[in-house]
Amino acid sequence: MAVMSYIDAINLALHEEMERDENVFVLGEDVGVRGGVFLATKGLFDKFGENRVIDTPLAESAIVGVGIGAAMYGTRPVAEIQFVDFILPAVNQIVSEAAKTRYRSNNDWSVPMTIRAPYGGGVHGALYHSQSLEGLFSGTPGLKIVMPSTPYDAKGLLKAAIRDNDPVLFLEHKRAYRLIKGEVPEEDYTIPIDKAEVKRQGEDVTVITYGLAVHFALEAANNLEKEGISTHILDLRTVYPLDQQAIIDAASKTGKVLLVTEDNKEGSVIGEVAAIIGEHCLFELDAPIARLAGPDVPSMPYAPPMEKFFMINPDKIEKAIRELAEY
Amino acid sequence: MGTSKSILASLTSEKAKWMYRKMVEIREFEEMVHDIFAKGELPGFVHLYAGEEAVAVGVCAHLTDQDSITSTHRGHGHCIAKGCDLDGMMAEIYGKSTGLCKGKGGSMHIADIEKGMLGANGIVGGGFPLAVGAGLTAKVKKTDHVAVCFFGDGANNHGTFHEGINMAAIWNLPVIFVAENNGYGEASTFEYASSCTNIADRAAGYNIPGEIVDGKDLLAVYEAAERAVKRARNGEGPTLIECKTYRDYGHFEGDAQTYKNDKEKVEQRDHNDCIKRFKDYALANNLATKEDLDAIEDSVKKAIEHSVKFGEESPLPDASELTKDVYVSYE
Question: Does the keyword Oxidoreductase apply (chain A) (predicted)?
């Protein structure tokens, strides 16, 4: 099995799906000739040509909206939004159109579309190149939000998203692109979109998180193992709709739960995870549910000390797990 | 370089020297940022304005501190032309506590209320409605202030372009929309991404004047902006000015620019430089002496060196600054 970076896994999934199904096409800003600013779409233009790898003007609302219209006529568009921070002009198209089309048309029309966007900070991008905006879209029935943590999951989930018959917002942590490497099979496989996965078995404390923070949690768990603290880690993978049973099982396993997100704390998807645990696991809990999240400030600032303060890291997670273990 | 006599008449030596200074400030600032970025001394990424100086300076030459501008991700030139402090700007790009935004914003988000600088903007097309809002206030409050929206050719395909200009037109607002058409929206050419031949052609759809100028010719920009600002102050409504220009560097620093051709790069940098063109003109028309311009260049070099020293030596902000200014403080 080949070891590859997170972004190469994304790129491989796109190549494979475009080869497999001629209805799959890619559109976005500089995704063609240039291969995307992060090179996620590298090589596609040369292989599949300008009708299937389409450079668009800088116009996010239309990038998404055009994808929706094309998807309604039987294609499977993969729209790239260059940074998730740029997606906001397209919110109307995503929430009002893509997510509601099947429901409002009595199942006549559907939007089998994937919208890919890099999110997250720690790359010195300042306010509009660092945000986590999944919380803005969660709570939109009709839309699915997938946020893979590993190259293996990224490939399998992106392929599943492209084949899904409903719109999927596929968010990729931009710092994971080249930082995270892992084994990725070269053969075809998909991963079910609505399933969370236990990334580590443990007995004392449960961490529930997603995206890049999964790796920080794994690092923290390995350090704590030496102190005799055993950490159970659940990777949500899909943050909307949530895999409720996996959350209940993971919380019940240890009775002590730490929820981690890089998004602002209030209004983030982990608040909903906490609500599920509160509804279902009252008698299984041995400690209050703990949350570790970005501070409630408008965006990640530019100056390094503030960015560092904002970012989730293994030390913060380790400290939070230790506090729960000692509770 | 074709320039009408009326310009020469209205252009004082003092103004010419001010404009020369501002253009050189922008160029030297950007060259310095290019160097310190390459050395890895800056914590974030930057988009440089070098090559487009004549646009920001030719327009801002007609503005006061009470007039407002909105800027772009390529905003250093607009900030300098509008009078933002060089030390405060450089410190911001270093992410220091003495920066104009105390290190929170960085290169792409410099704002300065004292100078009417509504802000550089990390979002393409973000500025159109803001400038219209500033113009609406000027009209309703009957000030004679104007608002200028600087934007790139990439933004002219954004929805906010249409929404903003249409509103400014129906309400006859004192807003000047200044397109900086440098030929590229990120890595895509203007010709590929835009259905129009000229951005200014789109003005016809809004029933406002649209003017095309050589953005490398400071006086052409100056003259067009003078007319537009005058119209705006007289209550005659918005204008769209398209400045055909060229960015000397890439979309961002580190951009390999494989989408540009080398011939065009050399031609623009070496044979169509806006600063050199204006310098020649100013000397030929006795607006300044060589000694005047040399002194300006020396003084600017020192100012830029000072800004770097200031940026380097200023302290980083404390992490606790992060939670300040989320909402108004009544303390």
Answer: yes
Measured from the Cβ of residue B276, the count of other Cβ atoms closer than 10 Å reads 13
pLDDT tens digits, residue range B125-147? Answer: 999 999 999 999 999 999 999 99
Of A129, A173, A215, A232, which residue is the catalytic one? Answer: A129
What average pLDDT does the structure give for chain A? 97
Q: Given this model, what pLDDT does residue B218 score? A: 97
Interface check B62 vs A, CB under 8 A: no
Q: Is A109 on the interface with B (CB under 8 A)?
A: no
CATH, range A2-184: 3.40.50.970
What is the 8-class DSSP label of residue B317?
Answer: P
Residue position matching structure tokens 């929805």: B159
Mean pLDDT computed over A268-292? 98
| Top-tier CATH class for A197-326 | alpha beta
Report in angstroms the alpha-carbon separations of A248 from A141, A194, A215, A245, B118.
21, 15, 22, 5, 48
Give pLDDT, residue B1. Answer: 45
The pLDDT of residue B331:
67
In this prediction the pTM is 0.93
Q: Would the CB atoms of B322 and A301 count as touching at under 8 Å?
A: yes
- A316 has a chain B CB within 8 A of its CB: no
Residues B220/B55, Cβ–Cβ less than 8 Å = no
Nearest Cα of chain A lies from the Cα of B11 at a distance, in angstroms, of 38
List chain A residues with CB under 8 Å of B319. Answer: 305-306, 308-309
Active-site residue A129, yes or no? Answer: yes
Going from N- to C-terminal start, the domains of chain A cover 2-184, 197-326
Query: Which of A34, A61, A304 lies at the smallest CB-CB distance from B43?
Result: A304
Q: Could you give the 3-state DSSP secondary structure of residue B279?
A: helix
Reported ipTM: the value is 0.88
- Chain B contact present for A178, CB below 8 A: no
* Chain-chain contact of B95 with A59 (C-beta, under 8 angstroms): no
Contact present, A294 and A130 (Cβ < 8 Å) = no
Averaged pLDDT for residues A225-234: 97
Does the pLDDT value for residue A285 go beyond 50? yes
Interface test with A, best of B188, B255, B259, B326 (most A CBs within 10 A): B188
